[in-house]
Amino acid sequence: MAQIQNRLTPFFENITFDREDNELVLNFGPQHPSAHGQLRLMLHLQQEQIVKAHPDIGYLHRGMEKMAENMIYNEFMPTTDRMDYIASSSNNYGFALAVEKLIGLEVPRRAKVIRMMLLEINRMMSHLFWLATTALDIGAMTIFLFVFREREYLMDIIEGYCGARLTHSAVRIGGVPLDIQDSFIAQLKDFLEKLPQNIKDYEDLLDSNRIWRMRMEEVGHIPTEMALSWGCSGPMLRASGVAWDIRKEEPYELYDEVEFNVPYSDVGDNFARYRIYMEEMRETAKILWQTIDMYAECVKNGQTELMAHAPKYISAPKLDIMTQNYSLMQHFVLVTQGMRPPVGEVYVATESPKGELGYFINSQGGPYPYRLKLRAPSFYHTGILTDMLPGCYIPDVVSIIGTTNIVFGEVDR
Amino acid sequence: MRTYKPKDDVQKKAYYTDRFYVAPQVPKSDVESDEVFAKDLEAIKAKFEVLDAYIQVEQMVVWIKPEDNYGVIELMRDELEYTQLSELSAIDFIAQRDEFEIFYQMLSMNKRKRVRIKMSIKNGQAVNSVEKLFRSADWSEREMYDMFGIVANGHPFMKRILMPYDWQGHPLLKSYPLQGDEFAAWYEVDKIFGKEARDIVGPELRDTSRVDRYDSTRFARLGHEVPFGAEVKGDEPVTEQSYQEEGGVFLVKKLDKASSVVVDDPQR
Q1: Nearest CA distance, B240 vs chain A (angstrom)
Q2: Which residue on chain A is closest to B172 by alpha carbon?
Q3: Domains: count for chain A
Q4: Least buried of A321, A327, A397, B23, by fewest C-beta within 10 Å?
Q5: Domains parsed from chain B with CATH numbers
């Protein structure tokens, strides 16, 4: 637009001021330390304010759904680790549960208890990791060091169980491969006893911290309708006033036997999400205490089975394979050809630390899934940035990305 | 004669299937067996044609005509309290019947129920976008377009989402090989240096099992260890290796190398 000449504004020769279009397009990421991996945001700015945001994803796309179509069911299990790599057992579990529902398997009680322990430890690890990285993004270095110390204890417990720290593959279709090690319960109790004080320490550092509150409160507001429309789940949805937790509402495993609350808030801003993560850690600790008792009960009742008995789909225990001919034959067929679930479809949603993690499997009766769709919560939590960011300011972007808790292994799959 | 391999499905196939194997079915039950679902189905049937409906693994599956998808999902959202569209995608059945199956996975939080709306479209046919009803469909439909090439009419930004904008082909089609096609193999080279540089750069080595025995920096050379970066000539001494779990393994005897026979010639 040409400059409108009047007496108050000086006239500059050869310069035009495009008043209607003085947007600055800022490219944020994909190599930005607080882009949580490979998020690229194209931000249209008016001064410091964002008028339009365009998230661009796909920088970590590995084609897991395609890989699944070319793998037998058990072969795909370690690939699921690489989705939400902060809490990989919950991905393993979601897939195992989907296949079990497809087959119609019932998992032994002891395996269920161990699975719940693993799931909740993973949830705790994920929430701790979230707290550490978000605080670091905002600039709180101390909390990062504290939290990673606690996370390290949990990683040690998991490492003792399955030998891996990050990509666990600790769940199998039909149960769990191993019983927990001797030191597991003692270590877990140690951790849980210290945890309330630890959480209190984090809160002392953050709750009344002026900078933390200014960066968090009334920033990144998500109204309930927007959260529902965008398919938000997990803490993102609960912070926006919907008390929906799949563990509570559609219980799987033994979640209907344990007592826990579902923290929710109707504020919907960053601070609400932060509070929900903190409260959920307490609830997770509550569940873990109960699973310890449930495990002791299993031991007392002599329930030693860890894998479901279904010779058509699941290999027999190692002892049987080594001693019985028929078990060895079954095992050979299952390893070389893979199990063949019945023809049909299943969609199973589980509450992963990030939200609703869904596996849709279409089986045509072959050893490979005909179609496997991974419904990752972070995918939609990234999409919502399109509607959330306009109106915010540049420094808010970092704290908003932090509280959405997106992991790009899961967004791009 | 060469065996016939279908071009429209190049995914991995079971290498052996028993001739008389009949795959069992995941049980389907009647919609009448669940009160809530029966009522919902009644409401849908009142306004739209339902081709098939059943309950499978605790969820109702409703088959509708592709042109009704917007109407049905609007009805589900506004009148039947299905407040979330959790997932939406397609399944490729081009090889079997030149069709795609599209599913919409919906969730009602008040009723604690999940419903799957399904429909079949012909290859090349577009669907109506439901982005105006659920914002989550914005990204899901873009992903469906990216992966299958199914266009959603009325979508505000029908561009690729996961693959680069200038990509050719739709990766989740059954006709797209797992390793990618020629375009995929040369994508970076073509883009950065131009097609004429293909000969100079050479193809990417994607053979993960390939081991260069003279490379001491990237491979550990188990059994023939040398210091990191050392030049390998091939006359390195062989390192004896044996491993046995502590305390032994049930039923497995510890290997005694001295008394065992090594078969050098497998044809003996």
Answers
A1: 26
A2: A66
A3: 1
A4: B23
A5: 28-153 (3.30.460.80), 164-232 (no CATH)
